[in-house]
């Protein structure tokens, strides 16, 4: 029994060390990834289900590591946040997305918007607004084609400051959307103080929308709320025809999800435009 106890202990510490080691080496890799050109943006179409047309895309970060393979943002974004690496990475994302939208506009897709995710750490940066303005100028993208996605929790951290920053961003002419809406501390009374354009219904409410009465009630309320506040509403995680129909019947017109398309590399998005495909 004593013997086994010791082995267990060793196993335990070994795996603890391995976890720490893994995180350390992931962090080391992450520090180099930007310089080594290992990041790439995928784009997921956002569809107007009335016209069947793609009106915009959401830029989603991908990390292609030579030996680790494709690393999911769910595993490296938190580490990038923790280490502050999200700040330079986030700037790269914004610049790359703006260059891409510029090139799509030049190719004749003049109406497209691009949505870029902004993390909490980026939102806290003193020079966020200057950085966004600089990138817009350097890429000469018209601000109205850029949407920044922030989560509710990012704004709730310091509401007064969030209102100031969001107004500054709005004054640049860009659009703001509240991502994962409904999952944070619901702060409905703040909504009217936030200069936002779009609510994104979180995919957790869409997944079981046709079978779970609570999820259906929440999604339906968010749509009604958006309409009465004159906000755009985009449903995320639309995976099936049933999801689409249910949401459309409740007045949601703009959607995003695997039912239409997975996030795709820029070239495949172009092929989709060129095919003239509607949804
Ligand atoms: P998010 O902003 O909520 O993005 C939506 C996520 O849902 C994406 O995962 C997308 O691929 C996935 N998705 C889209 N349609 C469907 C669907 O129909 N069903 C399901 N089950 N999932 C769907 P992804 O690309 O793995 O990104 C995960 C999260 O990582 C994002 O969640 C976002 O919070 C973060 N992230 C991604 N790119 C960036 C970035 O450039 N900057 C920052 N700060 N965060 C990012
Ligand atoms: Ca998002
Ligand atoms: Ca989301
Ligand atoms: Ca439920």
UniProtKB/TrEMBL annotation:
Name this polypeptide is given: PAS domain S-box protein
Entry superkingdom: Bacteria
Record-annotated EAL domain positions: 23-277
Residues of the full protein shown: 502 to 780 of 782
Species name: Tumebacillus avium
């Amino acid at each position: 029994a004593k013997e086994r106890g010791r082995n267990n202990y060793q196993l335990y510490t070994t795996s603890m060390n391995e976890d720490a080691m893994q995180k350390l080496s992931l962090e080391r890799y992450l520090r180099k990834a930007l310089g080594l050109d290992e990041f790439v943006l995928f784009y997921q179409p956002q569809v107007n289900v009335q016209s069947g047309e793609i009106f915009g895309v959401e830029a989603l970060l991908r990390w292609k590591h030579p030996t680790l393979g494709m690393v999911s943002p769910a595993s490296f974004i938190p580490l990038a946040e923790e280490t502050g690496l999200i700040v330079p990475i986030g700037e790269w994302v914004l610049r790359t997305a703006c260059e891409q939208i510029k090139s799509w506009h030049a190719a004749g897709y003049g109406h497209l918007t691009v949505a870029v995710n902004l993390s909490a750490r980026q939102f806290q940066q003193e020079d966020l607004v200057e950085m966004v303005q600089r990138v817009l100028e350097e890429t000469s993208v018209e601000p109205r084609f850029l949407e920044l996605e922030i989560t509710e929790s990012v704004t709730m951290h310091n509401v007064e400051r969030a209102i100031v920053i969001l107004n500054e961003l709005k004054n640049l002419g860009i659009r703001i959307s509240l991502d994962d809406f409904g999952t944070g501390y619901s702060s409905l009374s703040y909504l009217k103080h936030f200069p936002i354009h779009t609510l994104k219904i979180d995919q957790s409410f869409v997944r079981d929308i046709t079978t779970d009465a609570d999820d259906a009630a929440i999604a339906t309320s968010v749509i009604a709320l958006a309409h009465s506040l004159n906000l755009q509403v985009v449903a995320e995680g639309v995976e099936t025809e049933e999801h689409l129909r249910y949401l459309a019947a409740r007045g949601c017109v703009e959607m995003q999800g695997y039912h239409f398309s997975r996030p795709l590399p820029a070239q495949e998005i172009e092929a989709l435009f060129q095919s003239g495909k509607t949804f």
